[in-house]
Amino acid sequence: MAPSAELRLESVFRRFGEVRALDGVSLAVESGELLTILGPSGSGKTTLLKVVAGFEKPDGGRVLVDGQDITSLPPAKRDIGMVFQNYALFPHLTVRQNVAFPLEMRNVARPEIDKRVGETLALVELAGYDERLPRQLSGGQQQRVALARAIVFNPRLLLLDEPFGALDRKLRETMQLEVRRLQRRLALTTIFITHDQEEALVLSDRIAVMNKGTIQQIATTTEIYERPASGFVADFVGESNIFYGTAGADGVVTLAGGRTLNVARKVPAGKNVGVLVRPERFSNTAINAFEGEVIEAVYLGSSFKIRLKTADDFAVIVRLPARGKLPAVGGRVSVGIEPDEIHVFDV
Ligand code: ADP
Ligand code: MG
Q1: Domains of the chain, each with CATH number or no CATH
Q2: Residue 336 burial class via C-beta count within 10 angstroms: exposed 0-12, middle 13-18, buried 19 and up
């Protein structure tokens, strides 16, 4: 099997009238890596995949596979496997015929086709389903067939556009692990698109967070969660408390209304910054205390999720380990945050 390709996008632009679907996207996916592109609906994710696959022509910029410029190569010549959200199986063809299709297009000899289709169906755990029609399969099985069809010809890249969006939660989780297993086993360079942050965290080596046609941050899952580069990333990935303020001397950030926070990161005095506190990072320390009325308290099994309102009008989400009694709504709770649990980002 040919080694998997490295993919590079350089300043890719694509406009539709006034809409900047891709507004200068640059990124690199390494050989054998699974990169997730995470972003809200309309952020340009599908357009990005179409540019890579050759179904959309960029207005500017380049697409390179293993250093070779493929920007004007037609889709059929790109050797890329794709799976879309709405299973695009041929409804009148059997599972075997669907999976054989890309090999027939490439004029592969019949015995080789039979062998590869058999192997690939086994790989996606659909051995024995060869003669079924798509309508005789469940949604999850149909997506396995689509996946088999996308990898049967040993593509250089695999592109998955919200492939499990239509599946229920349980099945989606099974399929996520399945894709991860397959992708690792084949060491296949893969882009996986999703708008679901949990899915992105489960699947990825790295995540690229997209908004309005631009990549906001591209980093490991931990980095994205712990040290988001912007308020958008902090808010989009995970639960968050985000405040804005001005840095003073000696690691103090002054928020609206004059409240101050001690932070670990040194920021030049006078600089406007954003501050992120993840709800589970609060503790019973007296440092950086938020004392307030309980607006909402929910028991979530492993944690209590509490909304507090402070006297100076800060609304704070806190998660505490579920020990003892759930705090009563209307009661008072005080929590704090260690300075090094506060993430400061530039605005
Ligand atoms: P996502 O996949 O993140 O939801 P898309 O890439 O589908 O986003 O779309 C990005 C933006 O480009 C959206 O505003 C969308 O309406 C617009 N867009 C995408 N394709 C077309 C098209 N063929 N014609 C006009 N506008 C388009
Ligand atoms: Mg899309």
Answers
A1: 7-231 (3.40.50.300), 239-346 (2.40.50.140)
A2: middle
From residue 156, how far is each of 8, 80, 153, 291, 341 by CA, in Å? 13, 6, 9, 56, 42
Q: Is the dihedral angle over the CA atoms 52, 57, 63, 65 positive or is it negative?
A: positive
How many CB atoms are located within 10 Å of the residue 223 CB?
14
Which of the 8 DSSP states describes residue 92?
A: T
Q: Which ligand is nearest to the CA of 18?
A: 1
Ligand 1 pocket, residue 14 CB under 6 Å: no
Residue ID of nearest Cα to ligand 1 atom 15: 42
Are the CB atoms for 278 and 240 separated by under 8 Å? yes
pLDDT tens per residue, range 184-236: 999 999 999 999 988 998 888 899 999 999 999 999 999 999 999 999 999 99
Q: How far is CA 212 from the centre of its chain?
A: 15
Any ligand 1 atom below 6 A from CB of 157: no
Q: Residue with the nearest Cα to atom 26 of ligand 1?
A: 16
Cα–Cα distance list, 289 to 208, 284, 335, 339, 345 (Å): 34, 9, 6, 11, 21
- State mean pLDDT over 239-261: 92
Under the banding of pLDDT at 50, 70 and 90, the label for residue 50 is very high
Pairing of β 206-211 and β 214-220 = antiparallel
Q: Residue 284, exposed/middle/buried by CB under 10 A (0-12, 13-18, 19+)?
A: exposed
Q: Using an 8 Å Cβ cutoff, are 34 and 58 in contact? A: no
219: helix, coil or strand?
strand
pLDDT of amino acid 170 = 87
Neighbours of ion ligand 2 (CB under 5 A): 45-46
Does the CB atom of residue 55 touch ligand 1 within 6 A? no
